[in-house]
Amino acid sequence: MDCPLCADDGGTLVARTREWRVVLAAEPDYPAFTRVIWNAHVAEMSDLDAATCAALMRVVLAVEQVQRAVLWPDKINLASFGNLVPHLHWHVIPRWHDDRHFPEPVWGRATVGRDAAVEARRASVAARLPTYLEALVQTLHPGV
């Protein structure tokens, strides 16, 4: 099997259990772009039983809640595509009206003329990243 999410963590590891892991994606314009990855190689949510599916969604929503509490985004984008990597994972992406792609998806066409705003936003989010990561670990692994 040639699956990049089976071969390595898929980003900078933040938290892991036997079932799932949470990583920061390497997206320069979106330093808090986070992935929740199911460890077993399955392609779709419907490959999981109802209880497991609900448990995975609790992790996705916990990431969203921490992003909202610490980063104060204008919107959170949740996405589970897997078109290129058919391994179950969720993207949790904080968005701002002045980010490079708003209102398009982060994979969409970039808006021209926002370089100063994008750099300021990147610096602002990067400054809060340690607080975000600490809060995320405490939420996902209380008492650690």
Topology:
Elements: H1 4-7, E1 12-16, E2 20-24, E3 34-38, H2 50-71, E4 75-79, E5 89-95, H3 115-140
Antiparallel strand pairs: 1-2, 2-3, 3-5, 4-5
Helix pairs in contact: 2-3
Strand order of the largest sheet: 1-2-3-5-4
The run of helices and strands is: HEEEHEEH
Mean pLDDT: 93
Uncertain parts = none
The radius of gyration over CA amounts to 15 Å
The percent range for strand residues is 15-25%
The global form is globular
Q: What oligomerization state is this entry in?
A: single chain
> Biggest β-sheet: count, sense, barrel?
5 strands, antiparallel
DSSP helix count?
Answer: 3
Number of domains: 1
CATH topology: HIT family, subunit A
Output the CATH homologous superfamily.
Answer: HIT-like
Q: What is the top-level CATH class?
A: Alpha Beta
Please describe what this structure looks like.
It is a single chain. This protein has 144 residues and is α+β, with helices and mostly antiparallel strands. The chain has a single domain, classed as 2-Layer Sandwich (HIT family, subunit A). The longest helix is centred in the C-terminal third of the chain and has 26 residues. The model has no long low-confidence stretch (mean pLDDT 93).
